[in-house]
Design brief:
The structure is a single chain. The chain is an alpha/beta fold. The chain folds into 2 domains: about 15-250, Type I PLP-dependent aspartate aminotransferase-like (Major domain) (Aspartate Aminotransferase, domain 2, 3-Layer(aba) Sandwich), CATH 3.40.640.10; about 255-375, Alpha-Beta Complex (Aspartate Aminotransferase, domain 1), CATH 3.90.1150. The protein contains 13 helices and 14 strands. The strands form 3 sheets. A 7-stranded mixed β-sheet has the order 1-9-8-5-4-2-3, sandwiched between helices. Helix 6 links the parallel strand 4 (about 120-125) and strand 5 (about 150-155).
């Protein structure tokens, strides 16, 4: 029996040709392709500025720095997220304060954030978990009057929408991921988008060791101008090889999202007929790209989450446990993170799993997954 993977990147001849063209040009580091990718991505998500970086994690790191977050500050984050969301806060010397999430979307809400605010809160990082759009407007209505910056962790959300616009369009600053698990991939890589030109300018410098003159500008001139380093920066650059892949991937993103939503709709139809399973769906305020298609295994189901994953594995189907709870990880045990109760986070972490969903998933393979779910439901 052939194995069905939980995900698989969709890469082909166009990406290979784009990379070959970059190699032939002799300019493979950060250069003209990166600039072109930044411009195309900013236009796609309706952002004013885009800054390519090496990962979403480094994007979050720089977003916090340009927003002025540092030692002595608190940053409210969901524990229900990949650990990088909280780690970025520690990188700048601030304290992550874990807030609970909505039981349906898995995202922060204005209510859960309000319960976690302190006198030292300088920023909130809201995650579009699994591609489900965060309800950003109430969060900003809560935070903006208090001078608290809302950073959108849109790692999973390229192609999702919020109130009729692309996710990220209404964010003061957002960070994106192009990891292979994401539906737009450059292998590794990320992006910062922002409405503030001064934040974009500083992020561009910080990603490149805080050089006063970019490497692209220096290498484009026969007699390069001297550079200065006004502060400690980082090597958070993207390469033109990655950006070339990203440009191709961005061009086919609407097709990919449409395909993923069609697959998810088939899953939803089947899951609705299975007692004890709940599938993630679009919230009232937007549409998800289904970067992850997760289901909650409720108490009425014949098996718990671990047993269901084992049943799927016996059928040659690779599922994954749902989103982690960062506060349970050894790295944050014994660390002061606000100590708020997180019952929804813990419930979703213990009960959810991610179903196989990728562009090339065939009807017959999806039917195998659905039948395995039905079989498990029958006990």
């Amino acid at each position: 029996m052939s194995r069905i993977n939980v995900m698989q990147p969709w890469l082909g001849d166009e990406e290979a040709a784009a990379v070959a063209e970059v190699i032939a040009s002799g300019w493979v580091a950060q250069g003209p392709r990166v600039a072109a990718f930044e411009a195309a991505f900013a236009e796609f998500v309706q952002a004013e500025h885009a800054v390519a970086v090496s990962s979403c994690t480094t994007g979050l790191h720089l977003a916090l720095l340009v927003a002025g977050v540092g030692p002595g500050d608190d940053v409210v984050v969901p524990s229900f997220s990949f650990i990088a969301t909280a780690n970025a806060v520690t990188y700048v010397g601030a304290r992550p304060v874990f807030a609970d999430v909505d039981p349906t979307t898995g995202n922060l809400t204005a209510e859960t954030v309000a319960a976690a605010l302190t006198a030292q809160t300088r920023a909130v990082i809201g995650v579009d978990q699994g591609g489900v759009p965060l309800d950003l407007d109430p969060l900003r209505a809560l935070c903006d009057p208090q001078g608290i910056v809302v950073i959108e962790d849109a790692a999973c959300a390229a192609g999702s929408t919020y109130r009729g616009r692309p996710v990220g369009a209404g964010a003061e600053i957002a960070a994106w991921s192009f990891h292979p698990r994401k539906i737009l991939t450059t292998g590794e890589g990320g992006m910062i988008t922002t409405s503030r030109p001064e934040w974009a300018a500083r992020a561009r410098q910080l990603r490149e060791h805080a050089m006063s003159v970019s490497a692209a500008d220096r290498h484009s001139q026969v007699l390069a101008p001297p550079e200065k380093y006004a502060e400690i920066g980082f090597n958070f650059r993207m390469t033109d090889l990655q950006a070339a892949v990203g440009i191709v991937q961005l061009g086919r993103l609407p097709e990919v999202v449409a395909r993923r939503r069609a697959i998810a709709a088939s899953y939803a139809k089947a899951v609705d007929e299975i007692e004890g399973l709940r599938i993630v769906t679009d919230p009232a305020w937007g549409t998800t790209n289904y970067q992850s298609c997760w289901v909650e295994v409720e108490p009425g189901f014949q098996q718990d989450r671990e047993q269901l994953m084992a049943s799927l594995a016996e059928a040659g189907i690779s599922a994954r446990r749902g989103i982690m709870a960062a506060h349970r990880q050894p790295a944050y045990r014994g660390v002061d993170t606000g100590d708020l109760p997180l019952p929804v986070t813990e419930r979703l972490t213990d009960r959810t799993l991610i179903l196989p969903l990728f562009h090339q998933l065939s009807e017959s393979d999806q039917a195998r997954v659905i039948e395995a779910l039905r079989s498990a439901a029958r006990g």
